[in-house]
Design brief:
The complex is a heterodimer of chains A (451) and B (450). By secondary structure, chain A is an alpha/beta fold. Chain A has 19 helices and 12 strands. Chain A folds into 2 domains: 287 residues, Rossmann fold (3-Layer(aba) Sandwich), CATH 3.40.50.10540; 84 residues, 2-Layer Sandwich (formyl-coa transferase, domain 3). Chain A is 37% helix and 13% strand. By secondary structure, chain B is an alpha/beta fold. The chains are: A alpha/beta (451), B alpha/beta (450). Chains A and B meet through helix 1, helix 3, helix 5, helix 7 and helix 8 of A and helix 1, strand 3, helix 3, helix 7 and helix 8 of B.
């Protein structure tokens, strides 16, 4: 029989992705959401083939467009924003205007999914909430994202990723015990993880709609999504145990910590099972440890005093071991170990390129950008990147003409009234300065001959 | 706002009008619909999921999500049980079952099959897989295949099968083959996917505080489990439409980097790695935790008008000139940013968390009702620990915690209802952990009496 890895290499061949079917082809998403939480849910829809129409306020746009790490732009765009806005249609539309609302209702009528992450009540106040949209489109799946949820005493409290981390208990568990610092999960993980929960909920609602024909309303609170990731609650309720901050040591398995090796590398090493612990003891040349009363039984071993002494033994061993040596031993003997990788190592990692976890994407407007691929690789209907972020209002014409069959005259009139609009001169909103927008057939969709 | 005043305060301009409040009352009907999952139909009703994962919690977590959405999940383990039963904080356990395994025992069934050792058990597994919609496994890549029960073989008899595999380096590429026998853990997956490199104090801080730091929770295992369930959900929709199955491959070494997407793009555009910057944020400021009189608060006032409001309520208006614009506050010079951090701290430590929260909310409510734009919404919240969260009225009303009862281990509370849906919400029906507890049930239902 064919070697397994040559079989899987063909099954997942990155060069064949564009030939494979898209699950969500024909699904339309009307996306009022902004920044990260809501847009992540709709981005995943777009990765699997849905047409996502992202609405933004003309001349202002999404709050995250101009906000970039340490103020560093890339080709006059926010490099981090491209990942969250892949494959989306960008429409600049001013919701305040009654005529804009008319356009929105017409779009909502032909959409399968609507998503928003305003402060609870705002979408309803603006007339684009579930109450109104479900009247014109009863089969709609409507996702509302918020920090605390749409009901309950905190419902009107404003929030960000940080607030969800604080309210869920997540913020309080990272750091060193007995210090005055609590480190947040980095890179707005408190938005990204709940965003993925949002995609899961939408997919489940689509599955249900395919079965029954019914749409539904989804109330997703990011604090609650984060709380799903903690077993700390049950540990406290059942055992009175407040786990708190345990620095680099994972208190659930042993040894499990981040160590510094002889050559100054930071390496994570963790033994989750008895076999792995045995393998580690073998690698250290310390098989005798397996017989010691303190370490023989997994529950006994995890008690704080025993955990500390065992962690010290491993730390001492690694002071005389190189990082590469540790990885070799881990692979041969069978215990988990990995180097602590930083941004640059992840960008350069050949395994990630070969796998498609990191993509060198060639975009028609921006050229080459290295970006993350999907979290899961699917052999039959893979996730794909078709284009990255576009300037504010880039798809105005395409969306209004293609989806609503609007005439060029009507669009010009809407532009004059400032009901629809594009970018201003700020980086993050505008195209790269070298880019000739006048010659762009998508931006000028249906305008006949481009200049 | 006086305590007597009972009208609900709102902090968004458009929601603050009386007309809107009336509308919100009628909207209550929809909300009443989402408040209770009981008695509603289940999305994955009739979907059989075989969770053959062993020694890897990501598989168990992925199976949990599908079980909460109504699938029949059968956890398959050898007679001695999954070693994940013994992975638990400080060894805390209920009659030999660790806390995480207990928490993820939601809506599960347990069947004893020793896939590693018994030919006969593998045959039984293959027969079950013929009836299943989803198989989840975490063995070394290629091992199930070598046993004759991998995706390649199972799909011959069940072309609609969705086969989810979770391993550190995935099912294809040279490295996946070379590292097939490397086992998985949360901490190594955090490290290998780039999380700890972003947490911790700057390089010039004393050791060990300047080291990379792990997230104090199973961030990588939960992300991988969620990614596997999400990939499975995409595949289930495809299967529903076309009847076709497929393979879903999750590499836990992708967990963090591919969830947030920042690491590879920053590595490429900056041509170097980010440094660690302690409790600061790379874009937003103020955005983090501060010490107060009776604990800690988080403050988020990053937009300029939020920041101005924060200065006003803390009595720090004299700092406005130096820190007025977002770019002034971007903490690219960490030592300089700490000057503002300290200035804010001097004020927060004079107040209790509740006082600070009240000040911010009172300001926000006023700003929302004002006809002038730019009032700002400075947000201050008390930092909660998991035990404090369990006391919260908000989460009690939203039924985030549920008391469940295991027939062997008794009653306890778990975290649930992570998303509210009006028609087909996820829910926890029971929690079970007994090894082989459903042997008879599963065999009778799916294999008949042979």
């Amino acid at each position: 029989m064919e070697d397994y890895f040559s079989y899987t290499a063909k099954l997942f061949d990155p060069s064949k992705i564009s030939e494979k079917p898209e699950v969500l082809k024909g699904i339309r998403v009307l996306d009022f959401s902004h920044v990260i939480f809501g847009p992540t849910a709709t981005r995943i829809m777009a990765n699997y083939g849905a047409e996502v129409i992202k609405l933004e306020l003309p001349f202002h746009g999404d709050l995250w467009r101009p906000a970039t790490y340490w103020g560093k732009y890339w080709k006059h765009s926010n490099p981090l924003w491209h990942f969250v806005t892949q494959n989306k249609y960008f429409v600049g539309l001013d919701l305040k205007h009654p005529e804009a609302k008319d356009i929105i209702y017409r779009l909502a009528q032909m959409c399968d999914v609507v998503a928003e992450n305003f402060a609870p009540g705002t979408a309803e106040a603006w007339g684009v909430g579930y109450t109104q949209i479900s009247k014109i489109n009863p089969k709609v799946i409507y996702l509302s994202c918020s920090t605390y949820g749409q009901y309950g005493p905190l419902r009107f409290y404003p929030g960000w990723d940080l607030l969800a981390q604080a309210a869920s208990g997540v913020l309080s568990v990272t750091g060193y015990a007995d210090t005055e610092k609590f480190y947040k999960l980095p890179d707005y993980l408190g938005d990204f993880i709940p965003g993925n929960f949002g995609a899961l909920a939408i997919l489940m609602a689509l599955y249900f709609r395919n079965k029954t024909g019914k749409g539904q309303y989804i109330d997703l609170a990011q604090s609650e999504a984060l709380m799903r990731l903690l077993f700390h609650f049950t540990a406290f309720q059942l055992k009175g145990m407040d786990i708190g901050r345990t620095a680099n040591t994972d208190p659930t398995m042993l040894p499990a910590s981040i160590f510094k090796t002889r050559d100054g590398k930071f390496m994570a090493l963790a033994c989750a099972t008895e076999n792995q612990f045995e393998a580690l003891c073998g690698a250290m040349g310390r098989k005798a440890l397996l017989q010691e009363k303190a370490y023989a039984d997994p529950f006994e071993r995890l008690k704080p005093a025993n955990a500390d002494s065992l962690t010290k033994i491993v730390a001492e061993w690694l002071k005389n071991t190189d990082g590469e040596e540790l990885i070799q031993l881990a692979r041969e003997k069978g215990f988990p170990a990995a180097e602590v990788l930083d941004d640059y190592q992840i960008y350069k990692d050949p395994w990630r390129r070969e796998r498609g976890s990191v993509l060198l994407f060639n975009d028609e407007m921006y050229g080459e950008l290295v970006m993350a691929g999907p979290s899961a690789q699917l052999s039959g209907t893979p996730s794909r990147t078709k284009w990255i972020a576009r300037p504010l209002g880039y798809h105005n014409r395409l969306v209004l003409k293609k989806f609503l069959e609007m005439s060029e005259e009507k669009i010009t009139e809407l532009e004059k009234k400032k009901i629809i609009g594009i970018f201003d001169d700020r980086p993050g909103l505008k195209p790269p300065v070298y880019y000739n927008l006048d010659a762009d057939p998508v931006y000028n969709y249906g305008r006949g001959e481009t200049k | 706002m006086s305590d007597k005043q009972e009208k609900e305060q709102v902090y968004a301009r458009y929601v603050a009008s009386g007309k809107t409040m009336d509308h919100l009352a009628s909207w209550g009907k929809t909300l009443a619909e989402v408040m209770n999952p009981e008695g509603k139909p289940e999305v994955l009703d009739g979907i059989l999921v075989l969770d053959a994962s062993l020694g890897n919690f990501s598989g168990i977590i992925a199976a949990s999500f599908l079980a909460e959405f109504g699938a029949e999940v059968v956890k398959i383990e050898p007679p001695e049980g999954d070693p994940m039963r013994k992975v638990t904080p400080y060894g805390a356990n209920q009659q030999g079952v660790g806390i995480p395994f207990l928490v993820e025992g939601r809506n599960k069934r347990y069947l004893t099959l020793d896939l590693r050792k018994s030919e006969q058990d593998r045959r039984e597994f293959a027969r079950l897989a013929g009836k299943a919609a989803v198989v989840i496994e975490t063995f070394p890549a290629g091992e199930m295949d070598a046993w004759g029960i991998g995706y390649r073989r199972l799909r011959e008899t069940n072309p609609g099968l969705i086969y989810i595999a979770v391993t550190p380096y995935g099912q294809y590429t040279e490295k996946a083959k070379l590292f097939a026998n490397l086992p998985d853990s949360d901490l190594t997956a955090q490290a290998g996917s780039g999380l700890p490199a972003q947490v911790g104090d700057p390089a010039n801080s004393p050791e060990p505080y300047n080291w990379p730091l792990r997230a104090g929770m199973w961030a990588a295992w939960y992300i991988s489990g969620l990614s596997a369930a999400l990939g499975g959900a995409v595949a289930l929709v495809h299967r529903q439409i076309t009847g076709e199955g497929q393979m879903v491959d999750v590499a836990t070494m992708d967990a963090y980097a591919n969830m947030v997407g920042f690491p590879p793009t920053i590595g490429y555009t900056w041509e170097k790695a980010r440094p660690r910057i302690g409790v600061l944020d790379f874009i937003l400021y103020p955005y983090g935790m501060w010490k107060c009189k009776d604990g800690y608060v988080v403050i988020a006032a990053p937009r300029d008008h939020d920041f101005r409001a924060l200065l006003k309520i803390l009595g720090l208006w004299h700092l406005e000139d130096d820190w007025r614009h977002t770019p002034d506050r971007i903490p690219d010079v960490v030592d300089q940013a700490m000057v503002l951090y300290k200035a804010i701290e001097e004020k927060t430590i004079q107040n209790t968390a509740d006082e600070l929260v009240k000040k911010a909310l009172r300001y926000s409510a006023r700003a929302a009702r004002s006809k002038w734009r730019g009032g700002g919404v400075p947000i201050i919240m008390k930092m909660m620990t998991p035990p404090m969260t369990m006391e919260s009225k908000q989460f009690a009303i939203r039924k985030v915690f549920q008391e469940v009862e295991d027939k062997t281990l008794g009653k306890f509370t778990i975290n649930t209802n992570f998303v509210k849906m009006s028609e087909s919400p996820p829910r926890v029906k029971w929690v079970a952990t007994d090894i082989g507890g459903d042997n008879e049930y599963v065999r009778n239902k799916y294999l008949g009496k042979e």
